[in-house]
Amino acid sequence: MDGMTHPLEATADASAVEPQPGSVSFVVTSYEQVERAETNLKFLQSVMRDGDEVIVLTGAEPVAPPSPTSWFRVVTVPHATEFMLRAHIPAVCCKEWVVMLEDHSFVDDRVIAAIRQMIPGRPDADLIVFLAKNLTSVSRWDWAIFLHTFALVWAPLVRPPPFAPVTSVIVRRSALGSEAPMQEGAWELDVIPRIFRTGKIAYSNDIFVDHVRSMTLASAFLIAFHNARAGAALQRVHRIPIRNILYEGWYAFVPRPRELAEALADRCHELPPATFWRLHVIGFAHLIGNFVGSLLGGGRSAFRL
User: Fold this and answer.
1) Phi and psi for 290 in degrees, rounded to 5?
2) Cβ neighbours of 155 (radius 10 Å)
3) Quick one: 15 and 84 in the same domain?
4) Domain carrying residue 11
5) Cα(259)–Cα(267) distance, rounded to whole angstroms?
6) Global confidence as pTM
7) Domain count of the fold of the chain
8) What would the pLDDT profile of 114-166 be if each residue is shown by its tens digit?
9) Quick one: angle between helices 109-121 and 38-47, nearest 10?
10) Intervals of the chain under pLDDT 50
């Protein structure tokens, strides 16, 4: 796969010219291997416009030499976690808007059309929330993992969403501030939450990702554990008190599944039997991960997500 770029070269490119109004930096994070981004790349090539750019951010070592004629760039941050890749977004994107996707989060041409329609229609917004649908990964444990993360932004919504997951997001480039890489974890814990708190957000039921994860009981438990452990370790680096982190784990285990059951009461018929029992299992894994990450650090968890 061609289009490899060194991170420092990408930083220099990011601030070189004034972005064209309405232009988009499409970013796909794929920390494990670039090839996992291929599905998104094939689609994005079909919806690019003049002035747009497509970037793959990866922690994998380059497997091909740079190609100056490639229609996309690959920016390698060696041995980076997903958190570190997202922290590099301000340094590599140079267009007016950033559409950031994971390599297992997918959109279609209708979603892109809705994004392009909303961008000029909401000049007051700095952030457009990605909602989520579970269109592909529909086994029982797939649903549990999906709802653990996306239940409150499961499209369609009848009211504006609460704070949404930031692993896929649409954000005005100027709202990110610095053109240098951020501290690992700043995207998740500081920058996007800060923009959300300003209230300069927009959403549409037509703008969502299909979050594709194929899960068994064991894999669902492990990914919830590793995600919580890595997140807890990052929170400690950002000086969030241990008691707050442990409370988050307890909340995921006990109150949150009950609250989600109430919030989704009208949609239970769309879910497999015993879904909310599975959410308690996922919450227990989250609690254990928070405990271990708070006291022992992240270990290798950030590379097992």
Assistant:
1) -60, -40
2) 18
3) yes
4) 4-211
5) 14
6) 0.90
7) 2
8) 999 999 999 999 999 999 999 999 999 999 999 999 999 999 999 999 888 89
9) 60
10) 3-4, 6-15
pLDDT of 17: 63
Residues 139 and 175 in one domain: yes
DSSP-derived letter for residue 79 is: T
CATH number of the CATH domain containing 29: 3.90.550.10
152 with 85, same domain: the answer is yes
Q: Check residue 174 and report its DSSP letter.
A: G
| Paired sense of beta strands 208-211 and 53-58, if any | unpaired
Q: Do β-strands 208-211 and 4-5 pair in parallel, antiparallel, or remain unpaired? A: unpaired
Angstrom distances, CA of residue 96 to CA of 22, 130, 171, 223: 6, 18, 9, 34
pLDDT at 11 (0 to 100) = 43
Please say which residue of 211, 234, 266 terminates a domain. 211
207 and 250 fall within a common domain: no
Which pLDDT belongs to residue 220? 97
Residue ranges of E strands in the chain: 4-5, 24-29, 53-58, 73-76, 97-102, 105-106, 127-128, 131-133, 169-172, 201-202, 208-211
- The reported pLDDT for the residue numbered 6 is 46
Residues forming a β-bridge with 97 = 24, 172
Last residue of a domain, one of 157, 179, 211: 211
Q: Is residue 102 within 8 Å of residue 83, measured between CB atoms?
A: no
pLDDT value for 10: 44
Tell me if 158 sits within 8 A of 231, measured CB to CB.
Answer: no
CA pair distance 103, 56, nearest whole angstrom: 9
Looking at residue 64, its pLDDT comes to 62
